[in-house]
Amino acid sequence: MIVAGCDLGSATGKVVLMNEETILSTAVVHTTTNPEKTVLLALDEALRKAGLNSLEDVQYLLGTGYGRAVVSFIHDNMSEITCHARGAHWLHPAARTVVDVGGQDCKVISLDDSGKVLDFIMNDKCAAGTGKFFEAMARALHCTLEEFSDLSLQSDTPANITKQCSVFAESEVVTLINSGVNAAHIASGLTESIVRRLLAMIYRLGVVPEVVFTGGCAKNEALIRGLESKLGENIARLPQNPQIVGALGAALFAREKLAKSAHC
Description:
Radius of gyration: 19 Å
Helix content: 40-55%
CATH superfamily of the largest domain: ATPase, nucleotide binding domain
CATH architecture of the largest domain: 2-Layer Sandwich
Strand content: 15-25%
Low-confidence stretches: none
């Protein structure tokens, strides 16, 4: 019983293939201007990794994310909040708070002990604190995203960053560079400013241990450590790529829906 979950984000498309309780393969691709093309690219990669021949080998496909409603060949779709919660809980059953930072939005989700969503808060009106923000700041510092995280970890005297808007923050970074401020201090200051923004969201919802971090920005170790320090809580590291958590949740729901349809 092979199923697939696809998560169409603003920056990447993710697919998870599952057979019963086993993850067969995962794929992460850059988004295109066509959601269906993005899904097909990710599916092709995931199928190839799993040694499967074609999409016909997949019995049920469930979508989530921004473009889920316009992909004609999926069987059903669900919200990314629900799918992220389910995927995080499956990977880490002790999770009660999920912090998700993707390409253009941030979410904090509260779960019960079964992985059901109790409440959530979301920021999708501004790119501050998202992957797009980090991409812009890394560009301003002439480094990769991986190098940006490493730079942040090298400084214990973060520069004071007053702007949260990506455009104004980038201008502030350029000013700091031209003033001779060390790049590590700037990167650390930027990371600290995003930690403050995420903390405001977390505290509005309320933090209940254990906390997990999902989304592409969960690969930023400096950001995770900064959150841990301010929260006074450990953040669990997931055993899978944190980018695929939403797609994993979608695959788990696909499995359930397929099983129900088989009994009808």
